[in-house]
Write a structure and sequence with these properties.
Blueprint (H helix, E strand, L loop, with lengths): L1 E5 L7 H8 L3 E4 L13 E6 L2 E6 L22 H13 L5 H13 L6 H15 L5 E4 H4 L5 H11 L4 E4 L4 H6 L2 H5 L2 E4 L21 H8 L1 H7 L2
Parallel strand pairs: 1-2, 1-6, 2-5, 6-7
Antiparallel strand pairs: 3-4
Length: 228
């Protein structure tokens, strides 16, 4: 059984869903330390042909706060602001209404208090739209100890996975920690290179934006192929 483990990020890019598409089980790594100014709270979209960074405001946290404990500052009106920004960015794109329909219930529904729950809700809804049959698990439900690679190994063993698919960016620390020798689990690395696609009002292709940009410009059906 193949597994991937990633922090629940906000409006992830296409590579995040490529990773999900290649595994049997996908673990939301919500039991590690929260990092301010990370992809956990923000991502990039294309607004009138220019990159635009949108960020979720969170309440003040201690340095050792875990991701699953982080509370959103829902009193700031940010959800309405993000929703209006997303509508401005994508309403006129070829498949903008299709993309926005995925997010509308989440942005205009009852707001979760926790950042991790909000991010997971977005990810699960998009994964379902892309017909991904992967099983999702929260690391916090597994109650594993240790840190770094040893923490990942405990998660994989609890799930009885014999293959771990990791983003290429984690290769250095996994090798430094002797992941394969310690675990006996096969280590594979993701190979995803985003192909250019026609973007609304953009002369040059802007890569690594939220997957919402992909869906809004080429549609859900074409995105299923794109992420594979």
């Amino acid at each position: 059984m193949r597994c991937a483990i990633m922090q629940p990020t906000y409006l992830p890019w296409a590579g995040y869903f490529n990773l999900i598409s290649q595994v049997d089980r996908f673990v939301f790594l919500d039991d590690v330390q929260f990092e301010k100014q990370s992809w956990q709270t923000r991502n990039r979209i294309l607004l009138q042909g220019e990159e635009c960074l949108i960020s979720v405001p969170v309440r003040k946290t201690r340095r050792d706060t875990l991701i699953r404990e982080v509370l959103i500052n829902n009193g700031s009106g940010w959800r309405r602001k993000h929703w209006l920004t997303l509508r401005t960015a994508y309403a006129k794109t070829p498949y903008g209404e299709e993309a926005l329909a995925l997010l509308e219930p989440i942005f205009n529904g009852e707001p979760p208090e926790r950042l991790s729950e909000f991010n997971q809700a977005i990810i699960l809804r998009i994964a379902q739209a892309l017909s991904l049959s992967t099983t999702f698990v929260c690391a916090s439900d597994l109650q594993c100890g240790e840190a770094r690679s040893k923490h990942l190994i405990q998660i994989l063993r609890k799930l009885e996975c014999d293959e771990y698919l990791s983003p290429r960016g984690s290769a250095a620390y996994l090798e430094e920690d002797n992941f394969v020798m310690l675990s006996g689990i096969s280590l594979l690395f993701q190979e995803f290179h985003p192909a250019p696609y026609k973007q609304f009002r953009s002369k040059d292709f802007v890569s690594h934006l939220s997957i919402i940009d992909v869906i809004a410009n080429i549609g859900i059906e074409a995105t299923k192929t794109y992420i594979s």
